[in-house]
Amino acid sequence: MQSINPAVLIASLYVFVLAAFLGYQLISRVPPLLHTPLMSATNAISGISLIGSLVIAGMHKVDFHALASGGAAAKPSIATLLGFIAVISATTNVVGGFGITDRMLKLFQQRESVKSKGVKKGSK
Amino acid sequence: MEPGGVNYLLEFTYLIASILFIFGLKGLSHPESARRGMFMAEAGMLAAIIGTLFHNGIITYEWIAAGLVIGSVIGALMAIWVPMTAMPQRTALSHALGAIAAALVGIAEYTLHGGPEMPLFIRGALGFEVMLGTLTTTGSLIAAGKLQGFVRGTPVQFKGQQVVNLLLFGGMAGCFVYSVGHPSASLIFYTMTGLGFLFGVMLVIPIGSADMPVVMSLLNSYAGLASAATGFVLGNNVLIIAGTLDGFSGLILSILMCKAMNRSITNVLFGGFGAVRAATAAGAGGEMREISLNDAAVRLAYASKVVFVPGYGLALAQAQQAVRDLANALEERGVTVKYGIHPVAGRMPGHMNVLLAEANVPYGDLYEMDQINPEFPSTDVVVVVGANDVVNPDARDNSNSPIAGMPILEVDKAKSVIVLKRGQGRGFSGLENPLFCKPVTSMLYGDAKASLTALAHEVKNL
User: Fold this and answer.
1) Which residue of A has its CA nearest to B108?
2) ipTM surpasses cut 0.95
3) Does residue A96 share a domain with residue A47?
4) Is the same domain home to A25 and A40?
5) Are residues B138 and B256 in the same domain?
């Protein structure tokens, strides 16, 4: 990654611009009815930044025995700690985001059974 | 990503994940296909995560395992326990989490590879990522606090606020430019990080709760763009794609919300809306007529078409089930029941739809503003539940009103209107609403949930 080559960079920019156009097309088709699930779904999807945090959290070996006995040299690097916190927040977003989106979308699906019977069965 | 070369299997997994994410969002174009779409997106996410665990840069799994477990537990608890009425706070919180993850990855990359050997473009993307990530983190936390009631919902304003914010922003941007040009100046980089956190707070505290739909959408967009910037820093296309989709989704929602309030994004962010309102509120006058519970029930029961118009008050009173019960009682008598939803009703885009869906209202009965407005003249009774600005005829009739030009639900064109309201006060927005004094309007005072439940009971006994 350090020796970035211009072709890769240009390709990344293409990906960005095309994703932007695609995003515009896709999101414009989402009805206002589903705007709340949309926000929560895109949020969960952008939790993909988890894959970046995973690599950072796992790239340095930490000697836990030396750490327990107070060896200063064995301290985890700042990057590892930051990566660790990032893994927690990103995972929370992925699991929580998809979970809540699904819970909401389930509510929008129960239409048939409700309409025919006209009774509510409290779902939580 | 590693000097050793490209891991083709991993790249392929990421490609599959990107495709599945796109199909996932495509599914959201219809309620019936939405869940299936999300399953695809989830599968994509799982594949990407598992693939990454085999990344050759990872040599230790203790931190990863701990982080995944802690995050999954918190996420699962949130997914199970957060009530639908608290969805805006939850979403704001998740913007904060997404943004802090991006910011931390950026800072970690800086400690690992920062310095003159980092290419200029990457330094720019990294600075952008950290700047957006930090300001979105604190901004979203403040927004969540306001929505939850931890922080005062009214705009917090002081003299010279614009100047302070401008200086903060200038300082942050200046540090960004400087640190891109001088990669060894780590102090400047960390100053930028600090200013980002501070600016996020300052950006959101002057904004009132009623403008939250726009703020939420904007923060959504920032969090997404911060993720996309992470993708540039790490040279990872799936991150760029997912982040960009998120960023543009937020941007489109912000524009839609602004249109629905007839305001520009700058006006929402810097307008100091709350302050203008107090000045113009005094003018309107007139008598509000109260209606008894019994009369209201009779009027509803003998109507042929009833439209419910919900607002944030519905969420506050947790009255969604009570609305549904009343609607059921009416439908059993052969009354046609519909729901008119304004785009900015509630505190986030689509808030009301989710609440009513929770109460098992079929989504076919939920009508958007443009669909329901032509129907009001043929509507016998409109029931306004905790909505105010979105039905305020001043937006249409009074060019001096602070909300002039905002598209509204034209409930005053219906044959009669019943407004459920807690008291005679002006409510949240502090804006006088002439609807309440119109001849077609009757007021039913009391807690919305209690009133609706009582109405349903009366209607059943008629």
Assistant:
1) A79
2) no
3) yes
4) no
5) yes
Residues of B in contact with A8 (CB under 8 A): 235
* H and E: helices and strands count for chain B: 18, 6
In a domain, residue A40? The reply is yes
Give the residue numbers spanning the domain of B146: 87-275
- CA dist., res. B198 & res. B219, Å (int): 15
Chain A residues with CB under 8 Å of B108 CB are 56, 78-79, 82-83, 86
Helices (H) and strands (E) in chain A, counts: 6, 0
Q: Does residue A39 share a domain with residue A73?
A: yes
Number of cross-chain residue pairs from A and B with Cβ atoms under 8 Å apart: 392
pLDDT one digit per residue (tens) for chain B, 462 residues:
444 456 788 999 999 999 999 999 999 999 989 999 999 999 999 999 999 998 888 888 888 999 999 999 999 999 999 988 889 999 999 999 999 999 999 999 998 887 788 888 889 999 999 999 999 999 999 999 988 888 777 777 777 888 888 899 999 999 999 988 888 888 999 999 999 999 999 988 888 877 888 889 999 999 999 999 999 998 899 999 999 999 999 999 999 988 888 888 777 766 554 444 444 444 445 678 889 989 999 999 999 999 999 998 898 888 999 999 999 999 999 999 999 999 988 888 999 999 999 999 999 999 999 999 999 999 999 999 988 889 989 888 888 887 888 899 999 999 999 999 887 665 555 677 888 888 889 999 888 999 999 999 999 888
A70 beta partners: none
Site of tokens 């519905």? B314
The CA radius of gyration of chain A, in Å to the nearest whole number, is: 22
Helix (H) or strand (E) holding B114: none
**CA–CA gap between residue B183 and residue B114 (Å, rounded):** 7
CA angle B374/B435/B270 to nearest 5° reads 90
Number of domains in chain A: 2
DSSP letters for B258-305: HHHHT--HHHHHHS-HHHHHHHHTTS---PPPB--HHHHHHHHHT-SE
* B285: in domain: no
From chain B, pick out residues whose CB is under 8 angstroms from the CB of A117. Answer: none
DSSP-derived letter for residue B401 is S
List alpha helices for B54-185, DSSP H.
Answer: 62-81, 87-113, 120-148, 161-181
Catalytic residue among B389, B394, B412, B447: B389
Neighbours of A65 (CB within 10 A): 8
Tally of structural domains, chain B: 3
A82 in a domain, yes or no?
yes
Domain assignment present for B63: yes
How would DSSP label each residue in B174-196? HHHHHHHH-TT-HHHHHHHHHHH
The length of chain A in residues reads 124
Contact B231 A12 (CB under 8 A): yes
Task: Decide if A123 is inside a domain.
Answer: no
| Structural domain boundaries enclosing A84 | 33-117
pTM: 0.87
Query: In the annotation, is B370 catalytic?
Result: no
Mutate to test the interface with A, among B353, B355, B367, B390 (most CBs of A within 10 A): B353
Tell me the residues of chain A between 38 and 77 that have a Cβ less than 8 Å away from chain B.
38-62, 64, 76-77
Nearest residue to A95 via CA among A50, A37, A39: A50
